[in-house]
Amino acid sequence: MTRQALLVLPLLVALFAGCTGVGGATALGLRSVADGAAADWDSNAQLVSVFGLEANITLPPAAREAIREQAQKQADTNPEAILAILSDPAVGDGVAPGWGYAYLSSKGVYGVLVGADRSILYSKQVANSTEAESGMAQIEKSGIDLRAALNAWTIDSDKASANLAAANSTFAQQVGKPNQVATWFLNPEDRTWNVLLAPAKGRGVSLMASVSYEDGTVKSVRVMGARNLNINGVNVDVPDQSASKPAAQAPKIKQEAGTVQGTVSTLSNTDSGSFDISKVHKDGVLVFSARDSAAGTGLGTITITVTDPNGMEYRQTLTPTFGSQQKSLPFDPTTGDWKVQMVSSGVTLGLDGTVAWCTDGVPTADSSQNEACQQLSTEGTASSASLSAWLPFAAAP
Length: 397
What we know:
eight-stranded antiparallel beta sheet; disordered N terminus
């Protein structure tokens, strides 16, 4: 989670308070209502994050009762609202029964939940001024201009979903299926929509995706295995809706992995490379690294862009001030020729850039030494803990 996500954790569990779960709306479509409520609280309030949930889950009676019992122990949580909201007719389309908005000011952090009918379902100060000052200090230290970042938000949640469906056939096929959950988080740090579309339980696929909220560009899509669902601390045993016939065992494919390196500077600010993926895989990791190769000139940045055979880009900008920096991204390992482009900006005598990449599969002698493969092995492809971090109702903070 980003720094902004951490600021609104106290609000997440209250996302469903008073919500009817009837109808649907987009995030931008309801923003003006939330802005008005926040302005009444503090005219200087600044929007810092937006989040939403779509779900359509068939709950067994035992799980339904357990969720109700657990929710009744939480003062700000309405058990009937939680159960009612789990009936979105088209999960993943970016049209949700309600959207949550978090605002920051010197007074504290303020949370607003707006229903699809534009009614304010929840509005409350969820953190005090001391906590807000800490959050503001973190944001200032990160160098993010929140006002500029949120003013750049032009792509609505339904448009982000449509762009994802156009770019990724797996996402398009999953939208609207029953027994699924979709969570949406607006991330001003990299100006993207972060989306998770996942089955409640059983055979199926999960997708994590990132879409620019400035121009709608699909930044990344990661396809993973099925995950288990946890609602308000209750592990939900949702019946497997797929056919009872066991799936045929797929042949074990070996991992594919490699590294692309380059050096850029003020005098020669571009470098490039490529790699090839020859087999079909479901999952992969890209690790972007940069090192200041000329000690004492750490004023430059390097932007590394990895482009798949269909033109989808995975991009990271690194500033290895007087040392090194590393970032990683999940990626959809499409077969074919991949391009790597490195571009420097600012004043630098030399920046070494590296992209390590790895797909899922049976490890090989080469892949076992690859940093991306090590991350892929550590993270796995179906971590229930990762899902809990995405789901607003996964557990009370």
